[in-house]
Specification:
The complex is a heterodimer of chains A (193) and B (360). Chain A is built from four helices and five strands. Chain A is an alpha+beta fold and 193 residues long. Chain A folds into two domains: 30 residues; 118 residues, Alpha-Beta Plaits. With 360 residues, chain B is mainly alpha-helical. Chain B has a two-stranded antiparallel sheet. In chain B, helix 1 packs antiparallel against helix 2, helix 2 packs across helix 10 and helix 4 packs parallel to helix 10. The relative contact order of chain B is 0.13. Classes of the chains: A alpha+beta (193), B mainly alpha (360).
Chain lengths: 193, 360
Amino acid sequence: MNYFLAIFDTISTLITGMSVTLSHMLKIRKGNVTLQYPVERWPRPERNIGFNEESYNVIRSRLTVDMDDCIGCLKCERACPVDCIKIETHKVEKGEDLADANHTGITSNGTPKRLLVTRFDIDMSECCYCNLCTYPCPEECIFMVGGPNSNRHEIDYEFSEYDRNDMVYRFSKVPPDILQNYVQKKEISEKAS
Amino acid sequence: MVDFYIDLFSSVDFIKPYQSSIFIISVVLSGIPIFGFMAVNALVAVYVERKVSAFMQDRLGPMGHGVGLHAGKWGVLQTLADAIKLLTKEDIIPKSADKKLFLLAPCIIFIGSFVAFAGFPFNEFLVAADFNLGLFYILAMSSVGVIGIILAGYSSNNKWSLYGSMRSAAQIVSYEIPAALSLLPIVMLSGSLAFKDIVLAQTGSTLGILPNWFIFDNPFMIVAFWLFFIAGVAEVNRTPFDLPEAESELVAGWMTEYSGMRWAFFFLAEYANMFIVAGVATIGFLGGWLSPIPGFFEGNIWGVFWLVSKTSFLIFVMMWFRWTFPRLRTDQLMRMCWKFFLPGSFFVIIGVGLWDLLMR
């Protein structure tokens, strides 16, 4: 008798197990846990990292530069501990607008610019998110997106790319073909001097 | 199909004198569709297997999104991409391997399942070689692969490969006996070993509604079907009987040292064997190319459809097993075969014989 009970037990447990897997298979539309990453994304995390002080709860998410305010003082480049910021400048007339190079002469704080920033690259794959570059900036044009600055740029915490070279963000507004003119001029003026 | 081609070519006047070449061309012409079917079967089955396994584990499986090339909607082109990758991969032969046997083994395994397909009927006429010993032939040919498995394990010159191949060979050789014995009731009921006669014996309906398939013939036949199907799952080395492949102890068993194209041949043969086992179960117990509603949707094209869909359902059940049941230990596996399946199949043979004698 026990023999047949064991057979019955075996078959019933096998059927139970198979019905569990089948039910999971049929309910896949509701029950799947996979996130189709580039198409679907996780919800944005809460902007609170556990400090009592409100202004400390800053997400250091991504370095951004407002090029219209940048005067090319290189303070952020010197402050960077991992040298991920690369800046090149070119001397222009003080306070003069250069329409072809997208250059405005005066910043939003009223400071006249003496330099045209021909290159402002930040390699975000090297950035260590220390925030040290944002403090020395006299015009407050380089900042981490998020926290108090979230009103100036939309928060972005992923910025994942398919290619590592796409992690280098080029902020300079000078178009590449125009850039060539300025570099040549610079060389000529250097030779002349 | 071979006979059909021979008749066709013999009727043409200017080819007529070359009898030997007519035979060779006919064989090749009927072999190519089989190879095509095996390849398509493997492609589709791998995709379905990945999807079924993913759905049962609440995942999504291969989907189109990703870097670079797009794998089609729902990842339909994933297996095609995998196949191209396998074809273009480097063919690595280990330094200490027995080179000739190492190269020969995948061919033997592939030929084993290819030759078994030759006798497999898709409907009454669509069969590469129509034997009157079809069932016996397929049972014989499906065991040719064992030689290839042992060769693969031996020639890899790797102890884990050898262990894996020994396990696999032991398993296949043992489970062939209950599989063959549980097919005997079919032969007893139909009185023939030819697939055509076996299916023709299942026409009509029984008890008014049910089709007159052998599985509904008497209670013993349900047990016989069950025994054959489980033994078949064990014969094609699938979970819960996939002892030759054990990641933690044997890596991939006898396939460990193979890569690229040769490994793809193992895969092709594995899925072809699955199709053959499920197909023999379909023809033997589930009415082959007969419609489940007797008298409706009959005909040659519908026949292929019914056979392939019933077989696909059984393959799905194999996949379902794989993602549900934990695997057996080697001793449990052997115990199950020799102590339960073998007596069980004898019991079924006697039971069917007595039923046929007394109840009719």
